[in-house]
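lol ok so funny story. i was supposed to be doing the assay writeup but got distracted and ended up predicting the structure for this chain instead. priorities right. anyway since i did it might as well share w the group, maybe its usefull for someone
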Amino acid sequence: MTWLKRLLVCAVVSIAPLAAVGSNAVATTTPPAPPVTNDFMDLERDVSECISAMPKPGCGREPTASGDRGGAMQLALFGIILVAMAGIGTRVAFAVRARDRQPS
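and the output, tada:
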């Protein structure tokens, strides 16, 4: 039962910093920029709001092809990565349990 407690502690310690980052938003006092028109992309927001390392919701466009951002191929790759990580974790867990069962 101790391995389950260790797993839960590791999960909490890993996820806690991510929750803290989202709650420490800093307000800026810069004046708003004038709206920029864009004839090339169909956006719900102003283009100047969408230029960022972390785009806001409403920036970008719906995926039209499977290779587009958020398309079927990207979602399939994410699923494959999750399954591979689960397989690796399972293999490591079984190897550790087998090692611990061996007499010293």
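The first helix runs from residue 2 to 23. DSSP finds three helices and no strands in the chain.
back to the writeup now i swear
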